[in-house]
Design brief:
The chain has five helices and four strands. It is α+β, with helices and mostly antiparallel strands. The chain has a domain of 85 residues: Muramoyl-pentapeptide Carboxypeptidase, domain 2 (2-Layer Sandwich), CATH 3.30.1380.10. A four-stranded antiparallel β-sheet has the order 1-2-4-3. The longest helix has 17 residues. Bound molecules: zinc ion.
Length: 172
């Protein structure tokens, strides 16, 4: 009975930590914060319902074929509202110190293909790598050299992907 009562609390604690709401005291007092990568990956809504239908179909095809190769493709971020994209951009300005620098990593709401439903951020890294190699068969292309996870429909299925832009600031 006691374990039955304790289980939900344990699950809640796990959920809170997963959401970043819990304090992580497993490292002990005075421990350094957990490692954070130098390049922040913009995390957004994994919403695919408002993604361009052609893009969604292309991704579904790629996902099935990746699975036969033993690779899992996950959408980490699909469509984003303008407000959400603005928030990500504002955070990037804080992080990188200027709007010009921030634009290399996060597009403004006017420039983001996520806002128009024309981009998917794919994970995990091995999934993105698979799609980088095989995506053109589905019309899916990595468009920014510094974003191995960001894919858009940029060629016809089986076509050739256009040359990558160095980063998202080149799109304007
Ligand atoms: Zn993206």
């Amino acid at each position: 009975m006691l374990t039955n009562l304790r289980l939900p609390a344990a699950l809640l604690a796990v959920a809170l930590v997963a959401l970043g709401c819990g304090s992580d005291d497993s490292l002990g007092p005075g421990a350094q914060p957990l490692f954070r990568p130098a390049v922040h990956l913009p995390q957004g809504s994994a919403t695919t319902s408002r993604v361009d239908p052609e893009l969604r179909l292309a991704f579904i095809g790629a996902k099935e074929d990746a699975r036969t190769d033993g690779v899992t493709l996950v959408v980490n971020s699909g469509w984003r509202s303008r407000a959400h994209q603005q928030r990500l951009f504002d955070e990037a300005v804080q992080r990188y110190g200027s709007e010009d620098e921030a634009r290399r990593y996060v597009a403004t709401p006017d420039g983001s293909a996520h806002v128009t439903g024309d981009a998917l951020d794919i994970g995990p890294p091995e999934g993105a790598a698979w799609l980088g190699e095989h995506g053109a068969a589905y019309g899916l292309c990595q468009v920014f050299a510094n974003e191995a996870w960001h894919f858009e429909l940029a060629t016809s299925p089986g076509g050739t992907c256009p040359e990558m832009l160095p980063d998202s600031s080149y799109r304007g």
